[in-house]
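Cross-posted from the bioinformatics board.
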Amino acid sequence: MSDMIEYTIKRLFTGIFVIFAVTALLFAIMQLMPGDAIQLIANPRVSPERIEELREAWGLNKPAYVQYFYWLSHVLKGDLGTSISTGQQVSVLIKARFPYTMLLTGLSLILQYIIAVPLGLITASNKNTRADGIMVVLTIILWSMPPFWLGILLMLVFGIWLKVLPISGYSGLSSLILPLMTMTLPSLASVFRLARSEVLEVLREKYVLTAYAKGLNRKRVLTFHVLRNALIPVTVMFFLSLPWLIGGSVIVESVFAWPGMGGLLWKAISNQDYPVVQGIIFIIAILTVISNILGDILSAFLDPRIRLEIKGDNL
Amino acid sequence: MNLLSVDDLAITFETQEGSVKAVDKVSFDVKKGEIFALVGESGCGKSTTALSLMRLIPEPGKITSGKILFEGKDLLNVSENEMYSIRGKQIGMIFQNPLDSLNPVYTVGQQVVEGLLIDNMPKQEAWQRAIDIFDDVKISDSTQRVNSFPHELSGGMRQRVMIGMMLSRNPKLLIADEPTTALDVTIQAQILELLKELREKYNTSILVITHDFGIVAEIADRVGVMYAGKMVEVGDVYKIFENPSHPYTKLLMKALPRITKNQGRLETIPGNVPNLAKPPTGCRFHPRCPFAIDVCSKSQPEFIEIEEGHLCACHRGEF
């Protein structure tokens, strides 16, 4: 157990470096973009002197590394800064968007795994039947659809032809259905394919044969021996997709004008509103690091061989 | 009395190259309390035969004809549900590589207990039984070892766990598919010794699958030699070692590495195992057989009795 704690602390330390590396890199990329936020928001008739004054006020005329450290020192004090284009606190902006993203991506993630994992187990253990074949083809189709295209298609069918669902913005829970479908279907297909291929791989293992030879029935072998082992990589994948729970899907949220973080990020990037971009990416980076650590700890919990490796690493 | 009686068993694999007759009309018996060995090169169908006794041959293998009589009941006619009560309880099986035969995410104790719980044994009793079984298969520190994961044990230990696990429900027959192949020589000898001992203690018949005549000599009472999906010679171990009658058996014995007075080269059998999608006509061994005559490529030899309890399928078996 103490091995586990030591391992977690080590991982947290490297995680902190990762987070700062990500924000520094992002800052550099934002600098490379031509123009800046002031140019984009200012009316063309605003005098160059006034623009210069605004730059001065936002600190945009200072060298990039000074700007970065300025941002960093405020973050360490718990202040994510102020949006250049709206003048609002970044934390306020994020707080307003957060519940919508949580609703959409959280529900999507839950649906994906609740549907895809059992389906993967069932189809893999009935390999080469017609149902399995249909699922494989169907998921290839779903998987290869670009989300924006699927979103527009769903809008067209349900919003414009059938006129049963709202296509844009948020006006009650019915607005949730189309973005939820757009987000869930392709990912569900990929989780399904992972679960199915993992189950197929485990089914070829010798210990499955041993389990049958011991006299266990199919149900017991599938749930106790096969599923348990196949779940290890599926769990890791689940944790790797967790950061998007907060970050939101930029594409899906933009297509449906969903008032979440993904849409906010998209708008901030096009406005070169770097405090907002930095703020959101900073949060996503933190979540990525935390989810990775959580995923590793949980997979160590599920697989004693990984526990052994962790122990070995610490010696 | 025969515990197991395999009669004209045929197993076919449907592959893209056509149907492969992996096992072709194989018959043999295992008597109560005896150790019977099936010997042959890799790919001769011995492991497939073993798995078919448990009705566990992998896709796309199919048993196309024959009978597997276990205590008089044909296992090819029972339902899958009934097979659940036969596997483990009546027939146990251990495999070649103990490394991947145990589930890596459960302790070895859990895996032994799991089998015992099928018989509705109370949990506590099952754990005690698992510890006792570990003592029986000579795992030291059995009370601690039950809580080990497979990767924490050595190969020999894991094979002991497998043997214990499969004997824990007192099956009447234990199938051991290359039980020592993945282990080093000293451990091999210990495992074979253990199997012999356990046969006495549990009164279990054992069917050993091996490619090694050394193991046959060590452990078996009777032996069946397989070549390319066919049984070519069956008999008591002493009789076959004294008087090997099929040319294949003779050559296999010559290919056994041993220290002789004239330290010559190790003999090998020229040629390769035939492609079973297109087996040779007549006797399947004739293309590699130094004694082959015309008739060998034309008709399949029938079993003839060389002496009492010793059968050989060879046109020139009188040699």
